[in-house]
Amino acid sequence: MKAEQLPEIGGAYQIDRGQIEDFHRDGHLKLKSVLAPEELVTYREYLKEAVERGGAKRNCNVWCLDNAARQFVLSTRLARIAAELLDVEAVRLLRDEPYFKNAGDHNTPWHQDGYFIPLDSNIVTLWIPLTDLDSDMAPMSYATGSHKAGFMGLCGPDDESMSRFEQKVRNRGFAIHNYGSFNAGDIAAHSGKTLHSSRKNRSSRMREVLIIIYFADGARVIDTSTLPPGGPPLEVLLPGVRPGDLANGPLTPLVYSRS
Q1: Is the pLDDT of residue 1 over 80?
Q2: How confident is the model at residue 55 (pLDDT cuts 50, 70, 90)?
Q3: Full-prediction pTM beyond 0.85?
Q4: Is the Cβ–Cβ distance between 49 and 71 less than 8 Å?
Q5: H helices of 172-228, where?
Q6: The domain 3-217: what is its CATH number?
């Protein structure tokens, strides 16, 4: 099937004010049945092919590799959710990234992406499983309310470091929340400043997840020297722009505007 024959992921997914308030309070939110089963089944084949063609299971900007992946990642339904959660008029794509974990694959350490992104805008990440997931398949964990706490540091990927860091987070009064399972079509969203991680994939199946990250249209690029060390280079994340510029380069297209 050609990309132009694939079902368009348009229309609006209805989020009520209470859900938006929950997101702003907690820094994360699960949304059920954002994608119809037939939509996900159709696009999954093309997304997996694009990921494999990219040569790695974590290759940023799959949307640049395949027309079908482009249609999925740039869909207005998903982008509108991001705009509503950020409470802005319009959003741009920062990047997409596949997070495919083989059976037994390693932990993803605790981190807060937003503090490494050279933008004067917050970001929001949609975490999109491409299949049903259960609690053994490394669903994301979140430190509820941590998006209001500032930068909380990093930890190592080994089990001992993860557990020690989690205890420090709990000692500071933050509850660790994990949604446990997802039906295909459910997604999770989190603020760029929310502390999050995932453990090893304890199942016998690959965990297939695509993340899409958005930011507010009109955001400007800031000096990377003001950020914690270890983030992606500016020329990789935001090619074609410099500190002080509007973040409207070739890899950050406008994907949704209420107007």
Answers
A1: no
A2: low
A3: yes
A4: no
A5: none
A6: 2.60.120.620
The 10 Å CB-count burial string (b at 16+, else e) for 126-162 is bbbbbbebeebbbbbbbbbbbbebeebeebeeeeeeb
218-239 burial, b at 16+ Cβ within 10 Å, e below that, comes to: ebebbebeebeeeeeebeebbe
**Cβ–Cβ under 8 Å, residues 112 and 195:** yes
The H helix count followed by the E strand count for the chain is 6, 10
Torsion of CA 134, 136, 138, 144, to 10 degrees: 70
Which stretch of 8-17, 64-73, 230-239 has the lowest confidence by average pLDDT? 230-239
Total number of residues shown for the chain:
259
Tokens of 65: 């590799």
Three-class secondary structure of residue 239 per DSSP: coil
What is the pLDDT confidence band of residue 40, given thresholds at 50, 70 and 90?
very high
**pLDDT tens digits for 59-111?**
679 999 889 999 999 999 999 999 999 999 999 999 999 999 999 989 999 99
257 alpha carbon, distance to own chain's centre: 20
- Give the separation between CA 98 and CA 58, rounded to whole angstroms: 5
Secondary structure (3-state) at 226: helix
| Number of C-beta neighbours around residue 54 at 10 A | 18
Per-domain residue ranges of the chain: 3-217
Q: How far apart are the first and last CA of the chain?
A: 32
Task: Confirm if 31 and 186 have CB atoms less than 8 A apart.
Answer: yes
Token pair for residue 64? 């640049």
